[in-house]
Design brief:
about 90 residues; 3 helices; elongated; three-stranded antiparallel β-sheet; HU Protein, Chain A; single chain; alpha+beta
Length: about 90
């Protein structure tokens, strides 16, 4: 499912106009992104939690030349599914 399909599904299940569903989905994504940028954890009970993970700078090697390179520190998003989501995946 992509974003457009999610918006279409929301219009059908919540009986919203396509415009209202689009605003709702984009607003939710914007809020989650904003909180993660601030370093906050976003936890949706029953679904899961988004968290920012810091990776420190480290040394690496260029696989083509074998030359040592410095890899910069990065931040990435991790998702941990909640118990309800895990249980739902077990059902058929």
């Amino acid at each position: 499912m992509n974003k457009a399909q999610l918006i279409s599904a929301l219009t059908n299940t919540a009986k919203l106009s396509r415009r209202d569903a689009d605003v709702a989905v984009n607003s939710i994504f914007d809020i989650i992104i904003d909180q993660l940028r601030q370093g906050e954890k976003v936890q949706i009970v029953g679904f899961g939690a988004f968290d920012v993970r810091e990776r420190p700078a480290r040394k690496g090697r260029n696989p083509m030349t074998g030359e040592a390179i410095e890899i910069e520190a990065t931040r990435s998003v991790a998702f941990k599914p909640g118990k309800s989501l895990k249980d739902a995946m077990e059902q058929k």
